[in-house]
Amino acid sequence: MTPVRSWHLAQAILRANLNRSPHPYKLTFMVTRRCNSRCLQCTIWKQSDPPDPLTLDEIETFFRRNPRFSWIDITGGEPFLRPDLSELIAILLRHSPRLYHLHLPSNAVAPALTIQRIQEILALDPPRLSLTLSLDGTPEQHDILRGVSGNWRNALEIYRHFERHPDPRLQLYFGFTLSDRNVGTLTATMEAVRRQLPHTHWRHWHLNLAHHSAHYYQNENTTLRSASNRPAFLEELTTLHARKRTRSPDPVAFLERRYLAIARRFIAGQHHPMPCLALSSSLFLDPDGTCLPCSIWDRPVGGLREHEFQLSRLLAAAPARQARQEILSARCPGCWTPCDAYPTILGNLLPTIHGSSS
Ligand code: SF4
Ligand code: SF4
User: Fold this and answer.
1) Atom of ligand 2 minimally distant from the CA of 335
2) Which is the closest atom of ligand 1 to the Cα of 36?
3) What is the chain's pLDDT, residue by residue, as a tens digit (358 residues)?
4) What homologous superfamily does CATH list for 3-352?
5) Helices (H), 205-250
6) For ligand 2, is residue 341 a contact (CB within 6 Å)?
């Protein structure tokens, strides 16, 4: 990791705090809608890729013309199902000299494929790579929620592989998506993992609150967080927040604790717990080049093709400016999902420093 990359990220965060972001520094790129899972609370697996997805040449043009991302989440569907994933990553690495952090999630349905692709990506020498393996419950419960028999075992197989073959650039996490279906089982899930992987710790867990999204999960008709379960949600968040208490100066640990602290306000009914920085610090990109503020709000603000792959043009056009105004006045649906909440937390550090605590 070069100090220059850290410096660029710090600079972008400072600018966000001063309300002077010239461009988003965090990109969430959905590289495919294909998914080999059968989750109960997300219908991406029932969808197919758009008829005219971005080609690799177009993706290269995009990153070449927008070389200022410090943080990129590659997501899906299951991103590892893209046969050209390594080529795509090679392109973004080639044209992102400021990249500090590259993150991919995996549903772990095809462990050999995930392991192979991660090895290919490591061979490309990314600065800092993290892999989050979805794990939403105890073994039986997780396999039911994900609709795939043996899925829990496969997630642990991937983790175990990289524990045996560690790489200092790779960080492994388990991702627990908290919903009505698994609230109250977080501790049991972690203990079940620990019985098989004794070196795992609370810090190896990311928590995400289940959300509705019309354009992404397409799960508006699914009940995810009932009001009657609110006390149980708050208890889970409080437990994890307390367990993640640390004196470590690790910025990831800080972000996670702050996310959990504010998630309690969100669950208690505050749908916009902080001024959101979507379209300012962060951006969501669909497989066909459509840009949206985030994974939650179904509000396309333009296509890369119609703006010659220049984000500055797309964000300066009326749809993006209008959407940004609506975000500023809390007229979007509101959410607290880590992909979008982390840059919002980082861009609201000054009020934190000056007053509120977690
Ligand atoms: S939650 Fe993830 S693994 Fe499950 S269907 Fe949606 S994209 Fe696939
Ligand atoms: S608050 Fe949530 S839904 Fe609204 S724009 Fe920000 S990330 Fe999207």
Assistant:
1) 2
2) 8
3) 578 898 999 999 999 998 888 889 999 999 999 999 999 999 999 999 999 999 999 999 999 999 999 999 999 999 999 999 999 999 999 999 999 999 999 999 999 999 999 999 999 999 999 999 999 999 999 999 999 999 999 999 999 999 999 999 999 999 999 999 999 999 999 999 999 999 999 889 999 999 999 999 999 989 999 999 999 999 999 999 998 877 677 777 888 999 999 999 999 988 888 999 999 999 999 999 999 999 999 999 999 999 999 999 999 999 999 999 999 999 999 999 998 999 999 999 886 544 443 4
4) Aldolase class I (3.20.20.70)
5) 230-243
6) no
Residue ID of nearest Cα to ligand 1 atom 2: 77
At 251, list the tokens: 């910025």
From residue 223, give the alpha-carbon distance in Å to each of 32, 40, 47, 155, 212.
Answer: 25, 10, 20, 26, 9
Residues with CB under 6 A from ligand 1: 35, 37, 39, 42, 44-45, 76-78, 107
- Which tokens belong to 287? 């497989």
Domain borders along the chain are 3-352
Which ligand is nearest to the Cα of residue 298, counting in written order? 2
- 21: tokens are 């972001």
| Ligand having the closest approach to the CA of 337 | 2
| Ligand 2 atom 1, closest CA | 334
Q: What is the C-alpha to C-alpha distance for residues 79 and 161, in angstroms, rounded to an integer?
A: 19
Whether residue 338 has its Cβ less than 6 Å from ligand 2: no
